[in-house]
Write a structure and sequence with these properties.
68 residues; mainly alpha; two-stranded antiparallel sheet; 5 helices; 56% helix
Length: 68
């Protein structure tokens, strides 16, 4: 089964940003950020780009695909 890991929580904490602040910045709910950080939700490509743009990194720096 395909899996995706992410560094979102680490990036967010390194930048001193709350889940709520990040959610507001990328136009989603805090619950969405929480689900992303816990690996329960995979973002749309648009959300992935907004997150990467927010942190000034590449999508691959946040989302790490792990095949089967």
């Amino acid at each position: 089964r395909d899996r995706m890991k992410n560094t979102l929580e680490t990036l967010r904490k390194e930048n001193g940003i709350s889940q709520e602040e990040l959610a507001d910045a990328v136009r989603v709910s805090r619950q969405t950020i929480c689900s992303l950080e816990n690996g329960r939700y995979n973002p749309s490509i648009f959300l992935a780009f907004r997150l990467a743009d927010f942190f000034k990194v590449k999508i691959e720096d946040i989302f790490l695909y792990e095949g089967e």
